[in-house]
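Narrative of activities, Objective 1.

The group set out to show that a structural description can be obtained from nothing but a protein's sequence at a throughput compatible with the screening campaign. Below is one input-output pair from the validation batch, recorded exactly as produced.
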Amino acid sequence: MSNGPSRPTDDILSAIHILANLIGGAYSDHLDDIGITVPEWRVVLTLARYPGSTATEITDRWAMDKMAISRAIQRQEKANNIERKGNPDDRRSFRLSLTASGDALYDKILPVANKRYQTLVSSLSPRELASLHKSLDKLIADAGAMDV
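Output recorded for this entry:
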C-alpha cells in the first residue's frame, strides 16, 4: 500500500508539481476554515515578512499570476486586513501593509502553517533539507531565466 499518489512519470517536474498540489491542498483546508484562499495567505504572509511590498513584488516573489494576486489583495483590503499607501518610488503602484486585523489574521494562521511545514520536512534530515533547498533554488533560478 502506498503513502501517497504515485508519480505519473519519472521526471522531477512532475514530482514537483504533485508536491506543490499536495502542499497547497493541505494548507487550503485550514485556510478554508478561516475564510481565505491560498493566494490571500501568500499575500498576508509576504506582507508580514516584507511590509511595504508592492503587488508586483508579491507577484514576483511567488511567481503567480498577476490577476490572482490582485484579487487576493482586493479581498484582503475589503476585509480590512491590508492597507495601501502611495509609493513614492512609483506613482503607478502602492505600498501594501497589514492592518492590526491583518496582523491578527497572520498570528491566527501561522502556528498551523508552521506545524504543517515542520510535519512535511520532518522526514528529511537537516542535510537532505539543505540539499533540497539548494537544488530548488537552482531550478527556480534556471526556470526564471527561461525564454518561453
